[in-house]
């Protein structure tokens, strides 16, 4: 059965694609949940208009993210941690710690956007990559310093 997708579905297609699926999958899942509609001229035209609007919205969103990324790239954060004499942290600095420190500076960043190969386990200055969108990537300086004794 051929259907026109109204939502992007992983491993099947994107919005506006005409896909061929088994009848049961169409009747029991795609059509009742509104993920697809039958292929008709009016449905194709309506979906093209919706797709054009969605692309325009996405472009605006990416532009605003690029502005956000520029401001974010000029910023640096300092995270304190307890360390031994050689500079090895007793714990580690993770993406959640970095996202929290950025949030305190007024930037909303999801911890999943902070890309670390491994948690930071030493005192020093690190360049950390932030993926805001597939097209928008920036780098933030993270200073990991020795916590002041109490």
Number of strands: 9
What value does the Rg take, in angstroms?
Answer: 23 Å
Distance between the termini: 70 Å
Question: Which architecture of the largest domain does the CATH hierarchy give at level 2?
Answer: Roll
What would your notes on this structure say?
The chain is α+β, with helices and mostly antiparallel strands and 150 residues long. It has 2 domains: 2-66, Ribosomal protein L9, N-terminal domain (Ribosomal Protein L9, domain 1, 3-Layer(aba) Sandwich); 69-146, Ribosomal Protein L9, domain 2 (Roll), CATH 3.10.430. The chain has helices at 23-30, 41-73, 95-104; strands at 2-5, 18-20, 36-38, 76-81, 88-93, 114-115, 120-122, 124-133, 136-146. A 4-stranded mixed sheet has the order 4-9-8-6. A 3-stranded antiparallel sheet has the order 2-1-3, with no helix packed on it. Strands 5-7 form a two-stranded antiparallel sheet. It is elongated and about 70 Å long.
What are the defining features of this structure?
150 residues, alpha+beta, Ribosomal Protein L9, domain 1, Ribosomal Protein L9, domain 2, 2 domains, 4-stranded mixed beta sheet, 3-stranded antiparallel beta sheet, 3 helices, elongated
